[in-house]
TrEMBL record:
Protein's name according to its UniProt entry: Deoxyguanosinetriphosphate triphosphohydrolase-like protein
Originating species: Aquincola tertiaricarbonis
Record bears the keyword Acyltransferase: no
InterPro entries xref list: dGTPase (IPR006261), dGTPase-like (IPR050135), dNTPase_2 (IPR023023), HD/PDEase_dom (IPR003607), HD_domain (IPR006674), PHydrolase_assoc_dom (IPR026875)
Presence of the UniProt keyword Electron transport in the record: no
Keyword annotations of the record: Hydrolase
Family (UniProt): Belongs to the dGTPase family. Type 2 subfamily.
Pfam families, per the entry: HD, HD_assoc
Entries under PANTHER family matching the protein: DEOXYGUANOSINETRIPHOSPHATE TRIPHOSPHOHYDROLASE-LIKE PROTEIN, DEOXYNUCLEOSIDE TRIPHOSPHATE TRIPHOSPHOHYDROLASE
Positions of the HD domain: 62-198
Record-linked HAMAP family: dGTPase_type2
Region (Disordered): 1-24
Length: 378
C-alpha cells in the first residue's frame, strides 16, 4: 500500500513522448525494465567503482553498486510506504552516465570539455536515457517517466538547469531553480547511494590491502559495530573477513533503521498529503543528526585513507591520462569513432558521449589501438 505522499504511477506526469500504458506493468515498472535492458546498464559491469575492473574479480563495479543501492532503497521504501518500483528504477539508472575509470574519468573528461559545456555524470545519465540509447523507432532514448528522470538528475548547476529548463519548461531541472525538492523516492535513492558506497568501499578497501581493520579503529561508526559483533561472537576475533562482514552488516542495518525512524518522524510532522506537497517541503528523507555526523566522519576517513591512497592516486592519474589522450585522438580523427558519433554536428560533445559510454577495458583497448602508450597491465 502506497502512502499518500508516495509517487503514484497512476498520477505520473508522464513521458515526453506519450505512449499507451502497458497491460501488466505500471509506468515505473516499465521504466525499470527499459533501464535493465539498455546497453548503458550492461556496460556498468565493466566500469570502475574504486578499483579498476582488472584489479580483482570481487571488487564492486558500477553495476554491483547500483544493485546494492536498489536493494537498500527498496527495503527503506517498503517501510515508509514509498513506491519501490520507482526507487528501483532511479537506483539502477543513477550511474548510467558514469565514465570509465570512475571519478578520475569524469574529472578528466570535464577538463577536456571545460570550454564546451563541461561534463558531469548526473547530466550524462539523463542524456543517456533521454537521447543516447537508440532502441525504439518512435523516439531517441528510453522515454522514461518524469519521476524517474527527476530522480536520475541528482545534481545540476544553475547554468545547466537554465539550459535544460529552456528545452523543457517546468521539467526535471525546474527544482534547481525554484528551490523545491525531488520526490521522496528520489531523496531516498540519494541517501541509499551514500549508505551503499560507504559500506562497500570499506569492504573493497580491506580486500585490496589498502585498508586494515586496525586503521578502522579511528572510525567510531565502524568500531561501534565491530565491538558489538565481538562482544556477541568472541570467536570472530581470529576471523578477519567474517568480523568485517558482520560489522558492515550491522552498520548497514542500523543506518537503514535510522533513516526509517528519522524520515518517518519528519513525514509525520510535515504531513504532506500528496507527492507534490512533499516536494514543497524541506528535505524529508534523512539520517538523524548523530548518524549524519558519523557518516560524514566515515566519508572523511575513506577520502584520506583510501581514495587518496598513493596506489589509488597512481591508478587515477594514469586513468586521467588515458581519457585525455582518447579525447584528443578522437577530436583529431573523428572517423575513428562509429558514424553516429563521427557525424554529429557538435564534435566535442560527441567525443565526450563516446568516451563516457566506454567500459574500462574498451577504453584501454582503444587507447592502445590509437597509438597510446599502455598504462595498465589489463
Amino acid at each position: 500500500m502506497l502512502a499518500p505522499y508516495a509517487c503514484d504511477p497512476a498520477r505520473s506526469r508522464g513521458r515526453r513522448v506519450p505512449e499507451p500504458d502497458a497491460p501488466t506493468r505500471s509506468v515505473f515498472q516499465r521504466d525499470r525494465d527499459r533501464i535493465v535492458h539498455s546497453t548503458a546498464f550492461r556496460r556498468l559491469v565493466y566500469k570502475t567503482q574504486v578499483f579498476l575492473n582488472h584489479e580483482g574479480d570481487l571488487f564492486r563495479t558500477r553495476l554491483t553498486h547500483s544493485l546494492e543501492v536498489a536493494q537498500l532503497g527498496r527495503s527503506i521504501a517498503r517501510s515508509l510506504g514509498l513506491n519501490e518500483d520507482l526507487v528501483e528504477a532511479i537506483a539502477l539508472a543513477h550511474d548510467l552516465g558514469h565514465t570509465p575509470f570512475g571519478h578520475a574519468g569524469q574529472d578528466a573528461l570535464h577538463d577536456c570539455m571545460r570550454a564546451h559545456g563541461g561534463f558531469e555524470h548526473n547530466l550524462q545519465s539523463l542524456r543517456v536515457v533521454d537521447q543516447l540509447e537508440l532502441r525504439y523507432p518512435q523516439f531517441d532514448g528510453l522515454n522514461l517517466c518524469f519521476e524517474t528522470r527527476e530522480g536520475i538528475l541528482k545534481h545540476c548547476a544553475r547554468r545547466d538547469a537554465l539550459r535544460l529548463e529552456a528545452l523543457e519548461p517546468g521539467g526535471v531541472a525546474r527544482r534547481f531553480l525554484d528551490g523545491t525538492q525531488p520526490s521522496l523516492e528520489a531523496q531516498l535513492c540519494n541517501l541509499a547511494d551514500e549508505i551503499a558506497y560507504n559500506a562497500h568501499d570499506i569492504d573493497d578497501g580491506v580486500r585490496s590491502g589498502l585498508l586494515t581493520l586496525e586503521q578502522l579503529d579511528e572510525v567510531p561508526l565502524f568500531a561501534r559495530y565491530r565491538d558489538a559483533a565481538l562482544a556477541e561472537h568472541p570467536s570472530l576475533a581470529g576471523q578477519g573477513r567474517r568480523l568485517l562482514f558482520e560489522a558492515i552488516r550491522r552498520m548497514l542495518s542500523d543506518q537503514v533503521y535510522d533513516v526509517i525512524g528519522t524520515t518517518g518522524a519528519a513525514l509525520q510532522a510535515a504531513a504532506p498529503a500528496t507527492a507534490d506537497e512533499a516536494r514543497q517541503a524541506r528535505p524529508l528523507v534523512a539520517f538523524s543528526p548523530a548518524m549524519r555526523a558519523a557518516s560524514t566522519e566515515l566519508k572523511r576517513f575513506l577520502t584520506r585513507a583510501l581514495y587518496r591512497h598513493p596506489q589509488v592516486m597512481d591508478t587515477t592519474d594514469r586513468a586521467r591520462r588515458v581519457v585525455r589522450e582518447l579525447f584528443d585522438a578522437y577530436l583529431a580523427a573523428p572517423q575513428e569513432m562509429p558514424a553516429d558519433f563521427a557525424e554529429a554536428p557538435d564534435r566535442h560533445r560527441a567525443v565526450a558521449d563516446y568516451i563516457a559510454g566506454m567500459t574500462d577495458r574498451f577504453a584501454l583497448r582503444e587507447h592502445t589501438r590509437l597509438g597510446g602508450q599502455p598504462l595498465f597491465n589489463a
